[in-house]
Specification:
The protein has 467 residues and is of the alpha/beta class. Helix content is 29%, strand content 18%. Strands 13-12-11-10-9-8-14-15-16 form a 9-stranded mixed β-sheet. Strands 3-4-5-7 form a 4-stranded antiparallel β-sheet. Helix 5 (153-166) packs parallel to helix 6 (184-193). It is globular.
Length: 467
């Protein structure tokens, strides 16, 4: 990608970046998706980067502030631009620092300034599969593909503009199935035009040669495929779409071949339980990452867990297996956990997250369906606000708008009624107040779908330590 035509300066296209206005000045965060490296620029480095992007002349003797970006081939200069620059610098004065994950102090600065960093957006509720365990609205009523109140493309672009204002760096597009949305690819182009890190969840069924190539040149950060078995029979029995396994793997293979990060994600159900090891291993051969999800989420339609959940005996079997993601000896801490100090919130992600449904309503998370803002109400930008220290109110029906956001951020681990009080809580992975709300109507109760995993891990420990 040519950024500065005058000096022919190139910046590789498989990066994402944003500038943030903080109390200490402007800082720029860059993510390089092939190495999964982060670069944090401040001071002179931020100024130089911005000048490059504006097409302005660069003073060669200041380029050492961008040295890590030059060394890693993120910025490429022609010979004329580099005249007068010898690459020497004092490390202590370097204004670009490379990280393998976003540093905690920077997350804290973003929170203090009121930025929201992550967003998950279900752009449609429509789907071209009929997965037996789906938790979305109308997934099993036959009504989900009757589109109602979903955003137009112009509204979707306005929503992206609002997310930019909020500071969103990482954006997940999901559904439903994203490929059923007519403007999916134009929306991806608009998102990447603004340098947002784009992650896509898909079943991969509807990809064509044209859509595969058009998406690949946009360099999404990760494309995550739902795969439910190690062969056609098992997978297609879950999706209820004949030939879906073959189509999904064809799309996954294409993106791998084009250096796009892929994820092979399987949810364990009673119907595919006997194949989980083979599916996990095959996923490792087919993709950059192979994930196994043991948590069944409550339906957004009736608040019940799926009848396709694996039973206690199967969960204990998983907890006893070293290859399993819930192996009892493995230290596993999810995003929502009770192992932080009691004054911390169990669910408030360190980088700030929001969920957006297909109607353009912003919610606190996918498991907590109280809208706090909407693109149609033109009030999303009001969510850029500093964290307030309130006393948590469990009856959220008394609150609205950003007051709900402030209340959510005020939830503390010490507010929870049960979590941490049982001997099996030591083996808990996620507590998830949102799931607790859907299942019980009470954010502060323990969510059954997470407790059953903690109980299985604890039972596995007891079985192996009878003496």
């Amino acid at each position: 990608m040519v950024i500065n035509k005058q000096d022919t300066i190139f910046i590789i296209p498989w990066i994402s970046w944003r500038e943030y206005h903080l109390s200490e000045g402007i800082k720029i965060l860059i993510f390089e998706q092939r190495t999964h490296s982060y670069y944090l620029l401040s001071g002179e480095a931020s100024d130089i980067w911005r000048n490059i992007c504006k097409g302005q002349k660069i003073v060669p003797n200041l380029l050492y502030h961008l040295q890590p970006l030059i060394d890693d081939g993120i910025i490429i200069f022609n010979n004329d631009t580099m005249k007068g620059y010898n690459g020497t610098h004092e490390i202590g004065n370097l204004k670009t620092i490379k990280y393998q994950s976003i540093p905690d102090y920077f997350n804290k600065e973003l929170r203090e300034e009121g930025y929201i960093f992550d967003a998950h957006w279900d752009i449609t509720n429509k789907c071209n599969a009929r997965c037996i365990h789906c938790y979305n609205q109308n997934a099993h009523s036959g009504l989900r593909n009757i589109v109602a109140d979903e955003l137009s493309f112009e509204e979707a672009k306005l929503l992206v503009d609002d997310l930019l204002y909020l500071g969103v760096f990482r954006l997940v597009l999901s559904g439903g199935e994203v490929l059923t949305k007519s403007y999916f690819l134009p929306l991806c182009k608009y998102i990447r035009k603004h340098n947002i890190q784009l992650i896509i969840y898909t079943n991969g069924i509807a990809f064509t040669e044209k859509t595969l190539s058009e998406l690949a040149i946009l360099y999404p950060s990760t494309i995550c495929f739902s795969v439910y078995g190690n062969n056609d029979s098992v997978h297609d029995n879950i999706t209820k779409i004949k030939g879906s396994y073959r189509k999904t793997l064809q799309a996954l293979s294409y993106f791998n071949a084009h250096n796009i990060d892929t994820c092979h994600k399987n949810t364990i159900l009673s119907e595919n339980f006997n194949y989980w090891k083979d599916t996990l291993e095959k996923g490792r051969l087919l993709s950059k990452r192979s994930l196994l999800n043991c948590t069944i989420y409550p339906s957004l339609e009736d608040g019940e867990l799926s009848k396709h959940c694996i039973d206690e005996q199967q969960l204990v079997s998983l907890a006893l297996s070293p290859e399993s993601p819930i192996y009892y000896k493995r230290e596993i801490i999810g995003a929502c956990n009770i192992r932080k100090p009691n004054i911390d919130t169990p669910c408030y992600n360190e980088t700030n997250t929001i969920y957006i449904n297909s109607k353009g309503e912003v919610c606190l998370c996918i498991a907590f369906p109280f809208p706090i803002a909407s693109i149609k109400d033109n009030n999303i930008r009001a969510l850029k606000r500093n964290k307030k220290n309130n006393i948590f109110v469990n009856d959220c029906s008394k609150l609205s708008g950003y007051n709900l956001l402030d209340n959510w951020r005020s939830l503390k681990i010490s507010d929870l009624k049960e979590c941490g009080t049982y001997n099996y809580c030591e083996y808990c992975i996620d507590v998830c107040p949102g799931d607790a709300y859907i299942l019980t109507g009470d954010l502060l109760k323990a969510p059954e779908n997470h407790c059953i995993i903690a109980k299985a891990r604890h039972k596995a420990f007891l079985l192996n330590n009878k003496e």
